[in-house]
Amino acid sequence: MKTEFRTTSPFPDQKPGTSGLRKKVKVFRQPNYLENFVQSVFDALGDAAGKTLVLGGDGRYFNREALQIIVKIAAANGVGRLLIGQGGLLSTPAASCVIRKHKAHGGFILSASHNPGGPDEDFGIKYNVTNGGPAPEAFTNAVYARSREITEYRIANVPDIDLDRLGEIKVGEMAVSIIDPVSDYAALMEHLFDFKLISSSLKSGSITLCFDSMHAITGPYARRILEDELGAAAGSVINAEPLEDFGGGHPDPNLVHAHELAELMYSAKSPSLGAASDGDGDRNMIMGDHFFVTPSDSLAVLAANIHLLPGYHDGLRGVARSMPTSQAVDRVARAMGIECYETPTGWKFFGNLLDDRKITLCGEESFGTGSDHVREKDGLWAVLCWLNLIAVRKQSVADIVREHWRRFGRDFYSRHDYEGVETSVAEGIMAHLREQLPGLPGKQFGEYTVSYADDFRYEDPVDGSISEKQGVRIGFENGSRMVFRLSGTGTEGATLRIYLERYERDPALHGQDTQETLSELIALAETLSEAKRRSGMAKPTVIT
Ligand code: VG1
Ligand code: CO
After folding, report:
1. Number of the ligand closest to the Cα of 489
2. Contact at 8 Å (CB) between 42 and 150?
3. pLDDT, average across residues 364-374
């Protein structure tokens, strides 16, 4: 094998965001762009010689091309073995599972998650470490620093490999195993859930199911596990064929983008459980018959019930949620006498808590839920949790959630996104909010009195690392909150996210409309942020 040392010059914009480096395909396609970033990861790793790495992606446009490049750079950097999902495919949670199960040193996941795919759309790359989770900030900062000064990368001058044939091959000295992308993950799921019970409920028709894969990575996983192994009726998994452009859609499981599923669930033909997942399979949306479960509620309900599922009979050690996620899970933790941690947005912040066995379950308002079984959020796992739960409790999704509200109260919750805002305008909005923070506590706005206002700062309880400026939070005396932050996953302009929540103890008021219940808070958010006025947008682009 001939190793080439190619001269290159740095790109200034390779700073990983909330979840890896995401850019337009056109940006990634510039000569040396991907190569620089991958070599920077190897340089930051130090010594990858002889180590095993995992490689796979969500199958979006440019996935295969990028994989071939990474294989060659890995070989030139002395990697001992690569485990690659057949066809270049691995869902994000499956990649995490494979890294852990095969005791790999880490892995590259190629995905821009819920962002659209195609020649004019997005691509992404992320490095996960030995625990199977996203690299912590210290590492991504080191990669970024390296990318700013890189002058050379190493690449093997070898032909492309066959990504589609299972089995072992060699690229120079490096061993490459093309593995089934589903089987390790499916085995793990079987171990966590009561497959016998779920299967008999599905086969008897007492539970019916529709899972929308949105033409993304979970198609093959959901078909194998839900239809082949558990016996859900053929066709229960829809949009199951992964496509490079996700069929032109936005592979984001929410009521706006998973509209085919949403329509079904609000129709007379609604199955008992509706679910969807995103581009790379780590997000989930849960619905019941004429019922939408907010991700924050889903986390809280799972926290209160997960001991009913075989993999979690020992109960929870603790729970965690990202800062903007509603406080519903906090109430469950308090009732159970366990700790609830509040972390910045992004799954990488849960890794230490999981590794240190401080928590078992964690989640984000952005349709992400997961547990200590892997180190990523896990879409299909969440769906199996709910399937198992409705089978054990023999209740509908809506009844389980309503009963939960009666016991703990309801946290009305919504996120308003302003996408495609000019970066300087978005930064101006955040600066304007930050300026007001010192003067806000004690101020009264109608029935809302500010009890605290700050810019979220997180000190990791395990390694003491500090992350600053993670979002502006304003809390009120009645327990309501609003949070403002800028997205770290977009590739065009800026996205302002406004998170709103209001707690309601009285069950007589639990049936109210969410946006109506939040209307005063929504107006107050505008007064404080001037988001509409400054962006010139009449309303949010997406409301979840
Ligand atoms: C968004 C979500 C965040 C999530 C991240 C990655 O980040 O808000 O909760 O962890 O996406 O999700 P941001 O910075 O745009 O708000 V995914 O499915 O990419 O991997
Ligand atoms: Co995702």
Report:
1. 1
2. no
3. 97
